[in-house]
Amino acid sequence: MQKRLTAKMELFLDILKSPEIVTWRAIMNAHKEILCVLESALQKEGFTVPRLQIMFHLYFQGPLPPSAIAEILSVTRGNITAFLKRLTNDKVVKTVPGKSEGRPKYALTTKGTREFEAIFPGHSARVKALVLPMTAEAVEQLNKIQQNAAEICPTVLR
What we know:
Blueprint: H1 7-16, H2 19-44, H3 49-61, H4 66-73, H5 77-89, E1 93-96, E2 105-108, H6 110-130, H7 136-152
Helix pairs in contact: 2-6, 3-6, 4-5
């Protein structure tokens, strides 16, 4: 037996058909599935997504303060502190002096660099196998969506 649609339900179904909502749902569904595959593969290699993300930024950007890492990853400083403590305990990250005495930066150790360089090619290959290339215009549209979200909610925690 099929449920009888009310006028409000029909209105909501029409909303779901709007191009913006269809796009949003496609982005969210793709993100969920891609992240699931990548997380699973990383776990098999003893990595987590946050571990890879932090190591990625330290590898390509050099030493960073915790506040910058938190902002880049859109997480709280408390979360970053916990991640950095684990990475420091694993000897893949170390503190280095920052510009001000009390605010150290974090950098990859030699061990951390080796670990990142060992895992990055395989991770990149998985991403390339999952994600289809988009036109420059489509990528620009995705960047505009990100900018719109940042303008609506400019805080670190979106």
